[in-house]
Amino acid sequence: MSNLTAKEDANVAIGDHAKDFQLKQVVTTNDNIIKLSDLRGKGVMLNFWATYCGPCKKEMPYMEKLYPEYKEKGIEILAVSVDATELVITNFVEEYDLTFPILHDKNSQVLDAYGIRPLPTTYFIDENGIVVERVLGELSLEKLEGYLKQIEPN
Amino acid sequence: MNTKTCSTCGHPNKEGTTICEKCGKPLDNDHKNKLLNMRYDGSAIRSKTKNRSIVDKTWNFFSSVKIGVTLITIALVVSALGTIYPQKMYIPTTVNPAEHYRDQYGITGQIYYQLGLHELYSSWWYMILIAMIGISIFIVSIDRGVPLYRALKNQAIKRHPNFLKRQKLFSEIHDYSADDKDRFIKNLKKHRYKISEQDGHILAEKGRFSRWGGPYINHVGLIIFLLGTLFRFVPFMYVDEYLWVREGETAVIPSTNQEFYVKSEEFIFETYGEDKEDAIFEKALQNNNAPVPKHFETKAVIYRDVSEDVIGAEPKLEEVKRGGIIVNEPLKVNGLALYQDGYQLNEFKSMSFKLHMASDQQEEAIAEFTVDLTEPNSEYQFDNGYRIELGKYYPDYELNDGQPSSVSNYPRNPGFVFFVYGPDIEDREASFLAIGQNIPSGNNQYKIGLTDFSVRDVSGLTVRKDLTLPILGIGAFIFMIGVIQGMYWQHRRIWIHPGGDGKLLIACHTNKNWFGLSKEFEKVIDGTSFSMVEDQERKNDL
């Protein structure tokens, strides 16, 4: 019976309102704070990742590949890095030529609020701010595209 | 409702009653010479009498002791099965469980997975099983307990002679004096029997409360205990998290909704042999190759975020309390206790380098700089025209398939790629540095060398809250009271019936420990002419 704990439950699950947060955008020239609720009306792919996470490295190019097309269709990709230092994120983004917004959760507040355990963890949020899908682990190109289609605003 | 009218006193008894509630006449005329079944004092038990509606059938199912024992046995067996392979929560979160169990444990692993044993303890059918045990305990207690309570509360003092004759311990006394009877009753009182009298009939009773101990009070305790374990599902009641915090760093405390933060001011790690007082341990320490830890402590400060901003905004921290977290002395905040639970010593915090000519034997510094590993700059500019760029930084460097990469977030094994720019450098010179490595990109004119470093310790803190413990404690305590009540006391009754013709009928009953009762009876008849009661069960067997 001692194994019966609430640990397994996600803090933000499918069907929930995605908790609002704001984080500093990094690897950008202007001082930009991005707030999730400001993106209401757009579909949002919220990806938690880190530079030291192998599967994250694999799916990043897929995200980059689909980003321009789906940005046109009203979807924003937010990649929240849980790395300790901004420098490693900068190194990584420059190496992979990523163009979507990269946010830095330096104090792990959003990580804690969403109860993220494995990396990557990806939330697909519709235009009303409702979580449509939550994916633990790596995404393939096909799966990623399928999920993006689900959150395309009408 | 069907009733059974007593042929002697005319009292209408509920169907299923075996001993008349009013006069105590046995209602089962067929077995005249057999001993009376005194279970539940002959009262009607719901599950034994009604079996018509679906409610009756459900009630009867759960009130069966056989079913109860079967349910407990099944729960024990499946609980054991669930421990054969690790539960899903203990396998890596990124692997596919369907493949993981098959690949790791073969065909049995696949069966284990397909039966759902990998998520046993939170599966709906396991919960139903546990709930059924709870219901069974509850219903069986009410089914037996309520009629028994009523029967004993309203028990008659005057009993039918057949009631006495068919008790296990019985005697008929012919020649006795009034003194003998008085003496007998006085003795009973001395043995703390409660005496009730009606028309010369006497009922002496003691220890009735022990009847509630065994099956009823301890069942209440068990049910409270079960509820307590279920409350672990409620995040408000139970928290068990882990948190790493580095010296000088402030980290959010899990499960506080980002309201509380903890800062480690210092981690103290002492080993035996550092103090003079430790001299007495010298011999023991010599037998140990590694240092023996003596004291772990995190000097911590707890803050509350008083800003009303959205998650992720810079917190506005106000100090709540500060103190040392020692293994069994947690720091408590907001109902949570932070325990000292782990540590990592000497994680790199900063590294200092100097730039010198590669050919210079003296390695005289042209430029010196320090890289703060918690927040490294990407560029270091010097007045003498040199500039060093930190091109790549790997906190926990490892070479994977020829590709340098970091395997964690923490500077355990830092690796750097520096680009040196200078007045006499045409383009730039690159060097790679890591612990024990200093690799120039080519025929470099300049070299970067490590001059110094600083380290810090990391504290592992367990964040714990368990409001279910008092519930478990109360449940266990009530259970124990029930056990003690039922084990150390017995419900003993002695009936005296003036049988007429100058004789007395005496019968004794106890719910357990018949030997103790006969020993007591021997003492009670001491000094009277009364004869010892006979064990009719044994007599019948002979």
From TrEMBL, chain A:
One of its GO terms (molecular function) is oxidoreductase activity. Residues 12-153 form the Thioredoxin domain. Its main location: other. It comes from the Bacteria. Keywords: Cytochrome c-type biogenesis, Disulfide bond, Redox-active center, Signal-anchor, Transmembrane. InterPro entries: AhpC/TSA (IPR000866), Thioredoxin-like_sf (IPR036249), Thioredoxin_CS (IPR017937), Thioredoxin_domain (IPR013766), Thioredoxin_ResA/DsbE_sf (IPR050553). It holds the Pfam family AhpC-TSA. SUPFAM superfamilies: Thioredoxin-like. GO terms for cellular component: cell envelope. One of its GO terms (biological process) is cytochrome complex assembly. Gene3D superfamilies: Glutaredoxin. NCBIfam families: PRK03147.1. This is Cytochrome c-type biogenesis protein ResA.
UniProtKB/TrEMBL annotation, chain B:
The chain crosses the membrane at residues 67-85, 124-142, 216-238, 467-489. Residues 65-522 form the ResB-like domain. Keywords: Cytochrome c-type biogenesis, Membrane, Transmembrane, Transmembrane helix. One of its GO terms (cellular component) is membrane. It holds the Pfam family ResB. The keyword Transmembrane helix applies. It is found in: Membrane. It is a multi-pass membrane protein. GO terms for biological process: cytochrome complex assembly. It comes from the Bacteria. This is Cytochrome c-type biogenesis protein Ccs1/ResB.
